[in-house]
Design brief:
Blueprint (H helix, E strand, L loop, with lengths): L2 H14 L3 H18 L6 H15 L6 H13 L1
Length: 78
Amino acid sequence: MRMTILKEKVIDEIRKLENENLITEIYALLQLEADLRGVYELSEDQIKAMEEVQAQYKTGHYMTDEEARKDFEEWRKK
């Protein structure tokens, strides 16, 4: 089915809806899709921080989830 025809059918079905909860869910889904289409631009500081983190990861300087949880629990007990 062509995209244009499919869009028209979806719009027609939405116009017929009476279920407010379903309409709200459809709207939320469409908003999520719209948000995902947006492009987020990083600042120079953010780019630098990401590059540092990537370099640390590549050299093995990171914690596993389990190590981080253990470290957090030890910190929390202090």
